[in-house]
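User: Structure with adenosine-5'-diphosphate, tokens only please.
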Amino acid sequence: MRLFIRLSKSLIPYWLPLVLGIIAMLLFTISNVALVYMVQPVLKTLFNPESGTIQAVRAERQEEIQTGDFIAKWRAKIQSALDPIVYKDTRLRTLANFCILLIIIMFSKNFFLYCQTVLTSVALQGIMNDFRKRLFGHIHKLPLSFFHKRRAGEIISRIISDVQTMQGSISVSVADLVRDPLTILIYYFFLLFIDWKLTLIITTILPIVVFLLDRIGKHLRRYSTRSQERMADSVSVLQETVSGIRVVKAFDMVGFELKRFTKYADEYLRNILKTIRVRRLAGPFNEVIATAIAVAILWFAGRRIIAGGGLPPESFMQYVIVLFLIMQPVKMFSDKFARINTGLAAAERVFDLLDTPTTIFSKPDAIPARNFNDSIRFDNVGFRYEGSDEPALKGIDLIIPKGEIVALVGPSGAGKSTLADMIPRFYDPTEGRVLLDNVDLRDLDLSDLRSLMGIVTQEVILFNDTVRANIAYGHTDWPEKEIIWAAEAANALYFIRKLPDGLDTVIGDRGVKLSGGERQRIAIARAILKNPEILIFDEATSSLDTESERLVQEAIDNLMVGRTAVVIAHRLSTIIRAHKIVVLSDGVIVEAGRHEELIAAGGLYKSLHEKQMGA
Ligand SMILES: Nc1ncnc2c1ncn2[C@@H]1O[C@H](COP(=O)(O)OP(=O)(O)O)[C@@H](O)[C@H]1O
Ligand SMILES: [Mg+2]
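Assistant:
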């Protein structure tokens, strides 16, 4: 219920199209009723020479009002109000009038139906779009740890398919829960209006029909959900094997993957066949029900007609038509409860994601951080990853003065990346604090803080766009001169010039059309163009071959001149120039100093250095 209220809240901005849509639907239903109402006068005028003129009809009504029972009186009164619209003074004129009325009603009926569909879609698609944008915005505020815990596919499916499924419950919740009952009510009143006794008899049969329809629906739902799940499983196997095709081939695992795929595909087959068996049952079943109702009408109405004093033929026709009209919304209504359920399940997952707390954000009274003047300081910093027993960092005290290059070295898993990730607040320390110019990072404006930094990591993320757009990332109006200058400083201009369209070459998904070193140099050009106060390099060169590494290293050296930098490099040759070398092991600082000092000290650094020299 709480979920339902939350969902309904998302409708508020769209109340106008929603309300208009419901009104349009009601007008559509009323047009339908008007159309059916016409059946009776038309038949009467054509086949009864005594009737069909306004004078004749008036006399008839007068008689009904005097002799009829209570309900018949009311019916005659309402009808006599409508008569002047329907009947004219000769039968021929009345007939002409029918033709005009039919055209008007048909036109308005379809007009309202169209309005209803468009208005509801405007609201519905708008709501879905709002949810997608809210989810996208929220996901990007979530801490990195959130992304380690989930597969990318899961997050993406939340945004795309859950929102889609949610649409089911929203469309139902708004429009239909109000609309269908109203439609049913209007038709039902019309049935009562034509023949209330017959209607009450049929009403007693209806719950049985709805119950049976619901049973069939439940089975259908269960099997179709299962087959959807299996289909999703087989698609994910397909996706995994296609994107990992090299590994599948190299390990000759086609047979293994085929078995996995076959399992899901066969389960899908079984479930879809069950679905079909139940669904195909629904057709004959519906016909049986329709026949049962028809037989009931035939019996009850027919008995009275034979006894004399039942419905006149034109009213009988009217009645049967309305009954068919009412079946449609009744059937849809039971169907909709099913969609509400799957939709609500999806909505729950969407809200779950929207409710995931953002742990790293700017405080409302955050201090702006436009400049970096003095130093970055780690003050007894400890950090433990969520769900991990061992802390990744313990008691880190470190000062990075402005304008200096600090190198972090140590064995793999020592905590170098974790330490570097604390500076742009990818993670907040679980103990101690990190300060920028003596202010705790958590008190600074997050977006200011990050705009002070340029980060280049081993894993370069490029977007499927032009080289120019990738260097200028997010700024469409950088002057060409500066982009070229940045590319040159990054040692990238030479290869960019050789690309088919130079700076305007589209580099493919994640930059697949470039080599590792080329991608790396574009990332460096991006950092150079941003011109940040503080630079962070996390193994920016470690995946490169020697030639690329030399070019990238040169680029990095160009970039670091006169800046504050934190460099993690696994090749020690690049570190010798650093003002300070910090040696980490198992999350603690074991040594710090200049290259010569650390060599002289003969500790971990010396042995790391010797290992590499020997290699
Ligand atoms: N997302 C994570 N969740 C849990 N533990 C992690 C995560 N990332 C790294 N670790 C652990 O933290 C420790 C330090 O990792 P890291 O900082 O990446 O080391 P380095 O960069 O020095 O190789 C390692 O023991 C690693 O297993
Ligand atoms: Mg690392």
